[in-house]
């Protein structure tokens, strides 16, 4: 076990705290000091709550000293993506239109973190309203990849992936609408899980696309993600889409890490052409590790996946157009008066505010979604996309008849350079080609590091998909692969990141 508290995993910190070897204040202070040293370069956070985090840590220490029975993760600090409502803390969604907004309530997920006694270190950076694959669309500037500060940390949750990869937090919360937990995990060498849709409450999550959004864990190990998953999952009557069913045994599966006899399905449409050679090579090696661990490999075909990207980029903008209509300058957030008008109408104030408050990518998707929902075009565009969505779900159902889990590379490439795709929306959208199908079908997915691509020495990700509410299968496969790869690498992959030492200077 590492003696550097910032490098310890959440599970290691939980053991140290439970044994009384360290206090939550010491852990929290160490992480806050790390943030002070490196976040100027990485820009993972939009808001750091030093006072609140230390107060929460002191409360846990007092309760532990008094002999109270506490949650296993009590005292382990965490960072939260800035799309979650946090009482008393700013929630901006990476947008100017919500600059300065402080919610009067906590999202259910945040309330569960607080109830478990986990100090919240701060709110992490993100693409504006979760629209993007690079965190370059944040109104407050991009986050950077700790492996190479000139590269993206993924998106929309690049703040959550980079805060974990740069050892500023052992755990973070992200959200995944089309891959925004899994793709950032892949390009930063971390672990990211998208639970089954409805498995984690969306109450208090500022909606992008209500039928696609799902919050989930970001961590450095599969077990840590499982531990956090268990904290935040479960039925919530405040969320009408919440699944009223027991939480899958994710922690047990992660600890067992057994894939013997499991059927691993390689999705033909999510490998090969279009995937960076080094990413594909690491994927193939990871599959062989699973075979060596006792798994059986089969190939499956999901032909409708070819249309997933097109369907997604009609469904998401359509739902975003509806969800973002509430940002009208009348109730909360930014309000801009139009120039040259002494008595502007509500519509004129609304137009001026949206023009100033929304970034280009948000405007692009609102316009696209509004068009797709307009009279005369609804059936041709949005309606057709929903039919494709049904076909994708059917493809998954057939694939799971012959395989227990499906696997693919998480993203087609390693992290690209900042600015490389900023002016090419289609090139940016293609980063989600392997992750989008899971969101359209509502099934769970997990990304674990598969190694470093030969071309650039940057991390690649291995994606595991499972049937709805079979999230435990993800953690069994992920933990088995992680154990074998860690042994092959001689330690955690993040220990090989060249920028991490430099960042701390």
UniProtKB/TrEMBL annotation:
It comes from the Bacteria. It catalyses: L-glutamyl-tRNA(Gln) + L-glutamine + ATP + H2O = L-glutaminyl-tRNA(Gln) + L-glutamate + ADP + phosphate + H(+). Its EC number is 6.3.5.7. Pfam families: Amidase. It is an enzyme of class 6 (ligase). The keyword ATP-binding applies. Keywords: ATP-binding, Ligase, Nucleotide-binding, Protein biosynthesis. The active site is at residues 81, 156, 180. GO terms for molecular function: glutaminyl-tRNA synthase (glutamine-hydrolyzing) activity. Residues 26-474 form the Amidase domain. Belongs to the amidase family. GatA subfamily. Heterotrimer of A, B and C subunits. Allows the formation of correctly charged Gln-tRNA(Gln) through the transamidation of misacylated Glu-tRNA(Gln) in organisms which lack glutaminyl-tRNA synthetase. The reaction takes place in the presence of glutamine and ATP through an activated gamma-phospho-Glu-tRNA(Gln). This is Glutamyl-tRNA(Gln) amidotransferase subunit A. It comes from Phycicoccus sonneratiae.
